[in-house]
Amino acid sequence: MATAILGGGCFWCLDAVFRRLHGVDRVTCGYAGGAHSAPDYELVCSGTSGHVEVVSIEFRPDLISFRQLLEVFFSIHDPTTVDRQGNDIGSQYASVIFYTDAAQRSEALMLIAELDAGQVFPGSVVTRCEAAPVFHPAESYHQNYYSAHPEQAYCQFVIAPKLAKLRHFLADRLKGD
Q: What is the mean pLDDT of residues 42-55?
């Protein structure tokens, strides 16, 4: 079992996508990167704590590689905007890879270089690549938010299109449930 910690805007979006991937055993929404020892949603949303909304992904590398997780990550958010994903604006919505070891760091930097060299996006990738700090799980009502609230407007207009894209382009990587 391995862990990946990724931030790419609202953690509800990342949570909904990654929990559907074959080889992913657990996804936990949370906060990472700030100095406060007990961050909560209100503090993180203030933009003053230094924390980023992230997901911690427990995965089986024999079924899905870290690189494959990153490929999905880069396909479902805009890695060319600093501290912003759509209408979500602030440092808590940064695009960041918090690597857990040297191999993850190397893989992340290599993929970012490939994306930039291939001009995959209209701008340069600004995704930060930093050593994993302490991960703080978010409040329980944030966990698996999409499945609990699929009718909510944010879920329908922001998350559902990401899931449709996932089903269309990466159907071979989805769980068979």
A: 94
Only one residue has tokens 């929404």, namely 29
pTM over 0.85: yes
Is 155 annotated as catalytic? no
Q: What tens digit of pLDDT does each residue of 134-165 get?
A: 999 999 999 999 999 999 999 999 999 999 98
Asked if 81 and 87 touch (Cβ cutoff 8 Å), the reply is no
Catalytic residue among 10, 13, 29, 155: 10
For residues 7 and 98, the answer to whether their CB atoms sit within 8 Å is yes
pLDDT digits (tens, 9 = 90+) for 7-20: 999 999 999 999 99
| Structural domains counted in the chain | 1
Pairing of strands 84-85, 135-137: unpaired
- For residue 91, the domain's CATH number is 3.30.1060.10
3-state secondary structure of 88: strand
- Backbone phi, then psi, for 129, in 5-degree steps? -125, 110
Residue 166: which region, alpha, beta or left (left: phi > 0; alpha: psi -120 to 50)?
alpha
